[in-house]
Amino acid sequence: MVMRSEIQALVQTDEVVLWQTSVVPISYPVAVAKMDAHVAAIAGGTEQERVWLLEHPAIYTAGTSAKREDLVEPNRFPVFETGRGGQYTYHGPGQRVAYVMLNLAKRGADVRAFVAALENWLIATLAEFGVVGERREDRVGIWVKRGSHEDKIAALGIRVRKGVTLHGISLNVNPALEHFNGIVPCGLSQHGVTSLADLGISASMQAVDAALAKHFENIFGPIKRL
Fold it and tell me: For position 79, which CATH number holds?
């Protein structure tokens, strides 16, 4: 098995990545439509790479590997099928979602390197708040050790279309964790879910965004805030 820690780093470019932040929750269909349009424009050479930070209203999304039995409460929140990899996940207020739209053709065209770079980005961001986030080779996401068990604090789910990445990451800042009870998050019933607030860390979304921007630039290259 090739360990993600052994994968060559994603190639940086000198091109500036547009950095967009939405301050009000964006509905999932609207967000996906805009993301699809941006990705098509990037692939067509008429748009710069972009990262979009946002929150969604409370929803569940089903990735391409989602199992129906993992949707425990199908009527609790709206459920959307999505083209990203992975299984069921929850999005809602207090969770920072980042849609990452990068041109892998210019960055080494290595999907595994891209996933490893996303993991490194989240781990470095969490370290700003004194949280030790860790990757696991047998399951996706970023994990926090809590005594004899581990909880998931961040999720990853991506797709690549015409060499450009779609979807991205979500980081639990202070969401209502009981909302995860309506699904088996990522199909992993034996593990829990946590957040910065659940760990006793009072961090504003603005502070988290600043840390995300800082470490994105360290890993992926320069940004331009919109």
Answer: 3.30.930.10
As annotated, the active-site residues are: 186
In the prediction, which pLDDT does 140 show? 85
Report the 10 Å Cβ neighbour count for 215. Answer: 19
Please state the domain count of the chain: 1
Look up the pTM and report it. 0.94
Query: If you write DSSP's letter for every residue of 87-125 in order, what string do you get?
Result: SEEEE-TTEEEEEEE-BGGGTTS-HHHHHHHHHHHHHHH
For range 181-194, the mean pLDDT: 84
- CA dist., res. 26 & res. 4, Å (int): 32
What does the block give as tokens for 208? Answer: 């988290």
> Of 52, 53, 50, 40, which is closest to residue 15 (Cα–Cα)?
50
* Residue 71 per-residue DSSP state: B
